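Lab manual, section 2.4: Encoding a predicted structure.

Procedure: take the sequence of the chain (175 residues), apply the prediction step described in section 2.3, and record the output as C-alpha cells. A sample record is shown.
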Amino acid sequence: MSKKIGGIQVAFTKANTTFNNYDNRFPDGSGFNPSTTTLPAGWQRKPGFRALPEPLIWHRDVSIPLRDGVTLRADVFLPASAGDKPLPAILPWSPYGKTGSGRQQTINFTYLGVRPCDLSGLEKFEAPDPAEWCSRGYAVVNVDARGCYDSEGDIFVYGTQEGGSFLHKSHMKRH
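Recorded output:
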C-alpha cells in the first residue's frame, strides 16, 4: 500500500494491529474497554506504587474522530474535584501507547532508577503522571497516536500530519 505525500509516492507496511501489552494493563485484565471509572484517593495500581493523592476520573479508550475519518483512542484523566469546570490539558504525544497499551510500560522501570513508589502506573512512556498533574488542576490526555495500538490509520513518524489532525479536535468536550 502506498500514499502520495507532497508529490512523492510513499510505501506503507501493514502494522501488527494485534500486538498490545495488555498483560501489563490493570487488575481487571479487560484490555480495550471504553468506560469511565472514578479512582479513589489512595488507589494504587499495585502495592508499592504511588497512591493517588485525590480521586481521579478516568475516561478509558475515548474515541477521537479526525477530519479524515480516522479514529484515535485516548485515556483522559481529570481531577474529580473539577466537576464541569474547563481545565488546561497536557497532551503527551508519542507512538509508545497510552495508559497500559504500549510496549514501553512504566511499571518496569526500576532498571532506569525510577522506583515504583515514584509513579502511579497511570502515565504513558515519557509522559507526565496523572497522579501528579491532575492534582495540580490539569487534565491528562494519553493518546495512542495514529496507527499505533488502539488507534486507526497509518503512523507518520516525521512530519506535520499528526499535529494538524489533532489540533483540529483540540477543543474536545468533557465526557
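Check your result against the sample. The longest strand covers residues 56-65.
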